[in-house]
């Protein structure tokens, strides 16, 4: 029995690595690769690493149990990860089409008014965070898009910004307001990092010039929560809530 378990684990480990290779070669985003990989690890643990011949009943039991402890977003990611595994690793058709159908719902994000945004900017004492929040709001960017901005992405002559690896792995161009350009140029003149527009703060201003990584995502989120709380605002704010552009100037 132990030998069979060891064999099953060996096969699982080999297929798991093959799964990772296929994910990378398909050009998926790192977060998607990790989510799909996590799905295989989770289902592997559930079935004692024997997932090569799962039936519809097996999957029914798995997803039913998963729904008791995880959100629909986690369930969907596990579903997509398993489908990818079946197609590219096992070379088998998906055995349970239509088994999992998450409820359709659309949550409207809290809208940040200009007045609320201005209060947040004024209350943000750390310069790098203040400039970052203003940039997200004025350009209508997601958190990750803002963190990935480089000096080369800012085209002052054409008044536009090149947003790379946006949703759907697509690039796009967005208008660059004059006020944002001036703020970004003044901010860059302070740190003068040759690549990053928002270098990390671990080395302070002296270390920002040589930093090789952007602002920490968690640090940005924590800073925003603290500022919102200090302003007494009741809405649930996230950096992505700044996706309503300010008037162009």
UniProtKB/TrEMBL annotation:
Domain Tyr recombinase: 107-249
Domain Core-binding (CB): residue ranges: 10-90
PROSITE patterns from the UniProt entry: CB, TYR_RECOMBINASE
Pfam family, one: Phage_int_SAM_4
Protein name per Swiss-Prot or TrEMBL: Integrase family protein
Family listed: Belongs to the 'phage' integrase family.
Any GO BP: DNA integration
Organism this protein belongs to: Candidatus Accumulibacter aalborgensis
């Amino acid at each position: 029995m132990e030998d069979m378990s060891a064999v099953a684990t060996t096969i699982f480990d080999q297929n798991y690595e093959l799964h990772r290779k296929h994910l990378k070669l398909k050009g998926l985003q790192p977060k998607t690769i990790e989510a799909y990989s996590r799905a295989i690890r989770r289902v592997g643990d559930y079935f004692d690493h024997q997932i090569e011949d799962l039936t519809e009943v097996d999957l029914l039991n798995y997803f039913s149990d998963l729904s008791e402890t995880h959100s629909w977003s986690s369930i969907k990611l596990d579903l997509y990860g398993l489908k990818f595994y079946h197609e590219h690793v096992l070379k088998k058709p998906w055995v349970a089409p239509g088994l999992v159908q998450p409820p359709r719902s659309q949550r409207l994000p809290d809208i940040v008014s200009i007045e609320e945004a201005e209060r947040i900017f004024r209350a943000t004492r750390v310069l790098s965070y203040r400039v970052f929040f203003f940039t997200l709001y004025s350009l209508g960017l997601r958190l990750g898009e803002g963190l990935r901005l480089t000096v080369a992405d800012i085209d002052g002559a054409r008044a536009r910004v090149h947003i790379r690896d946006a949703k759907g792995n697509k690039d796009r161009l967005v208008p660059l307001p004059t006020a944002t350009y001036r703020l970004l140029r003044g901010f860059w003149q302070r740190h003068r990092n040759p690549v990053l527009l928002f270098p990390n703060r671990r080395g302070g201003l002296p270390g920002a010039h040589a930093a090789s990584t952007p602002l920490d995502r968690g640090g940005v989120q924590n800073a925003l929560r603290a500022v919102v709380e200090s302003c007494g605002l009741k809405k649930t704010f996230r950096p992505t809530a700044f996706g309503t552009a300010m008037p162009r100037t």
